[in-house]
Amino acid sequence: MKKSFSFGLVYIFTMAVFLTPTNTLGSGKSQPASPENMEIYTPAPKSTPRLNGPLVYGCTPGKPFLFRIPCQGDRPITFTVKGLPATLKLDPSTGIISGKTPEKGVYDLTIKAKNPKGKDSRELKIIASGKLALTPPMGWNHWYAHYDRITDKMVREAADVMIKSGMADVGYDYVNIDDCWMNAPKNNDPKRVGPLRDDQGNILPNTYFPDMKALTGYIHDKGLKAGIYTSPGTLTCGGFTGAWQHEEQDARLFAAWGFDFLKYDWCSYGKIAGNDKSLEAFQKPFRQMGTILKSMDRDMLFNLCQYGMGDVWKWGGEVGGHCWRTSGDLGFELDRIFEVALKNSEYKAFSKPGEWNDPDYIQIGWIGNASKMGIPELAPMPAAMQYAYMSLWCLMAAPLIYSGDMSKLDEFTLNVLCNPDVIEVDQDPLGECALVIKRPDTNFVMVKNMADGSKAVGLFNRGKNEVTISVDWKELQISDKQIVRDLWHQKDLGVFGQKFIANVPAHGVVMVRITKK
Ligand code: GLA
Predict the structure, then answer these.
(1) Mean pLDDT throughout 235-261?
(2) Which of 151, 162, 411, 455 has the highest count of CB atoms within 10 angstroms of its CB?
(3) Which of 141, 143, 372 to mutate to test the pocket of ligand 1 (most atoms within 8 A of CB)?
(4) Same domain, yes or no: 397 and 446
(5) Residue 237 alpha carbon to ligand 1 centre in Å
């Protein structure tokens, strides 16, 4: 990948009067995406181990436990864990911890990773209380890449790539199947048409999914987790078999197959709800499934998909959800990411550990146009906007679910998806969604309080030209000397006294973390 141009970030210090040596952007005008102008912001991972991933992990006593320690650096790496409860075991060469979740309690682990080049150490709190998703889920979902073309082979490949590409080393761990894995009463592809259920009423996968249990086993062997999709209606949004009147039976089968995540999509349930637009009617199918999932013999994250109806953010957690879409499908329109993010941030108060607002998937790299269920193409999104996209999602504490074609992941896309300094903002244990501070025109600043007392700040420019955006300490409710770190470039910029000013590229972002000196 060529680095053909770079942008000028003029940092104006109030402590010291100098300009940091930076790159220069040229005109600062937006450029359409092409492999030639996709600037790589983040340095390549070092060969020495760097432990990443959440600092807190929630699970339910007595249920199966699976966690792959995210760690960058040259393999082989040897892992050790201090404080591991007796019900869990560590594979020292893969860093996979598995077994049965110990009895109720908080377990403080010290994880160590070592290779011939160096070592790293990181704390992880396992909280065995039954509360899941203490940080936003991270992973992959097939929808925006493969639509009704999804197969077992593609899902396995996604799991392979999640490991090989290094995505799992920064915390991605769910490999999620969306719609169209079951049979449909009618479909253009005859291989997706067949009996909907067997004689006992068990839902049947279509011929592209010959063995669901083997598929989740394949994913679990890598230390990753598996997700599945259905609808409370008779049919899914894609016209495939839904769970109507088989809710418990289907959920039990999903658990028996070994799934760890369920996306439950309203779709044709509207016909069942009819004219009842009451809150209870909106909640009913989700409350039912939420209760069922809690009674399973394995932990399953519950992802509500009903496009924000009835202000789902106010009650999604109460009915057992761990995350819920706050609006319709994001689709793929330039600039829509900013709108969706700004709207999603209005529900800031409802974002907390175990309960996340979901602005939909990350659609960069090779994705298929949603309106045509198209074959994946390289997203026509300026490079700077892709960094803005990832920054918005991390500042919002959104689930980080990539939805592009994993078989075509390129260096640029991986660079946007896999910066652990940026991901740490998303995975912060406080679980706050950033506050939006508007600016004249189309620019805005997002500020997120971090558990260590620092602030993660994104300066966003929605316009077509580079602009200068400033944020002062009063707005951030801080004072004195602050260390400012550029997260995308993983570079400390210096100590600042009263404010931070940066030139922000067209459609782009400058994202920093500000920590008291
Ligand atoms: C809806 C959802 C999408 C996807 C499709 C599948 O549109 O919002 O995320 O799951 O259904 O048909």
Answers:
(1) 98
(2) 162
(3) 143
(4) no
(5) 6
Give, in order, the Cα–Cα distances in Å from 3 to each of 36, 41, 364, 429.
7, 9, 18, 35
Q: Please identify, among 426, 454, 480, the residue that sits at the C-terminal boundary of a domain.
A: 426
**Pocket lining: 143 vs ligand 1, CB cutoff 6 Å:** yes
Domain co-membership, 317 together with 416? yes
Give yes or no: residues 377 and 477 share one domain: no
Extract the tokens encoding 87: 């019900």
Evaluate whether residue 127 is within a structural domain. Answer: no
- For the Cβ of 228 lying below 6 angstroms from any atom of ligand 1, the answer is no
472 and 325 co-located in one domain: no
| Ligand 1 centroid – CA 106 distance (Å) | 37
412 lies in the same domain as 448:
no
358 lines ligand 1 (CB under 6 A): no
Residue nearest to atom 6 of ligand 1 (CA): 179
Q: Write down which residue in 394, 426, 458 finishes a domain.
A: 426
Q: Ligand 1 pocket, 329 CB below 6 A?
A: yes
Q: Which residues of 73-110 are buried (b: 16+ CB within 10 A; e: fewer)?
A: beeebebebeebbeebebeeebbbbbbebbeeeebebe
Phi-psi region of 136 (alpha: psi -120 to 50; beta: other; left: phi over 0): beta
User: How many domains, in total, are found in the chain?
Assistant: 2
* 505 has a pLDDT exceeding 50: yes
Residue 323 Cα to ligand 1 middle (Å): 15
Determine the residue of 148, 265, 372 to mutate for testing ligand 1's pocket, defined as the one with the most ligand atoms within 8 A of the Cβ atom.
265
Residues 366 and 395 in one domain: yes
Go through the chain and tell me how many residues it has. Answer: 517
With beta carbons less than 8 A apart as the criterion, state whether 412 and 35 touch.
Answer: yes
Range of the domain at 454: 435-516
* pLDDT score at 254: 98
Per-residue burial over 241-257, b if 16 or more Cβ lie within 10 Å, else e, is bbbbebbebbbbbbbeb
32-41, 228-237, 470-479: least confidently modelled range: 32-41
304/441 same-domain check: no
Distances (CA, A) of 446 to 14, 154, 214, 338: 21, 37, 44, 12
The CATH number covering residue 286 comes to 3.20.20.70
DSSP 507: T
Catalytic residue list? 265, 329
Domain shared by 215 and 284, yes or no: yes
Over residues 404-448, the pLDDT tens digits come to 999 999 999 999 999 999 999 999 999 999 999 988 888 999 999
Q: Give the rounded distance of the alpha carbon of 77 from its chain centre.
A: 26
